[in-house]
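Lab notebook, design round three. We kept the backbone fixed and only want residue identities now. Task for the bench partner: fill in a sequence for the structure below.
Input structure tokens:
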């Protein structure tokens, strides 16, 4: 029986499963479109995992006004456990004119999480991700899903376009007449 079993094992050992969730979380935070495609069970396991990290960044964003640096550092260190540690070391033989090595994905994800996403979700009490089912994969029949961050650029553009579109059934001529009437009233 599965009583009081909180998570799916996904056919992996504990270390492998946590490492996989960290990789998925890093990929989701670092992706340009704020979305990744994975299997449905992995997406369902990733959702609470990544939402806890976003909540930490959101709490840090709300502390910024109070000037509590110690609490912000503590929250950043807690959130770092949701990503693989980044090896941001400069080469020992870096010479003048050489660029230092780029930040690893985990460090970049942590930076984006606290700089951008914490402010984006500052007023949102939860529900930072959305799972969209895609159907079955051709090769093995696994159910695929898209997991994405809500309020991303694509969502904002869609909302703005919906506001700009005229109502169904209205014509351009009617819209121009309305503008003319507004000018005449002034």
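Proposed sequence:
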């Amino acid at each position: 029986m599965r009583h009081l079993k909180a998570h799916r094992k996904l056919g992996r050992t504990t270390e492998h499963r946590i490492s996989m969730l960290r990789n998925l979380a890093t990929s989701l935070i670092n992706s340009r479109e704020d979305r990744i495609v994975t299997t449905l069970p992995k997406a369902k396991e990733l959702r609470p995992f990544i939402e806890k990290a976003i909540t930490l960044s959101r709490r840090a964003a709300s502390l910024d006004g109070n000037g509590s640096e110690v609490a912000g550092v503590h929250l950043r260190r807690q959130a770092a456990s949701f990503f693989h540690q980044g090896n941001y070391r400069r080469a020992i033989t870096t010479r003048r004119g050489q660029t230092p090595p780029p930040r690893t994905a985990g460090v970049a994800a942590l930076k984006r999480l606290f700089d951008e996403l914490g402010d984006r979700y500052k007023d949102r009490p939860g529900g930072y991700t959305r799972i969209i089912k895609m159907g079955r994969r051709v090769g093995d029949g696994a159910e695929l899903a898209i997991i994405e961050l809500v309020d991303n650029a694509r969502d904002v553009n869609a909302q703005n376009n919906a506001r700009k579109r005229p109502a169904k059934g209205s014509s351009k001529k009617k819209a121009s007449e309305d503008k003319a009437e507004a000018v005449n009233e002034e």
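Keep this in mind before ordering anything: The first helix runs from residue 14 to 30.
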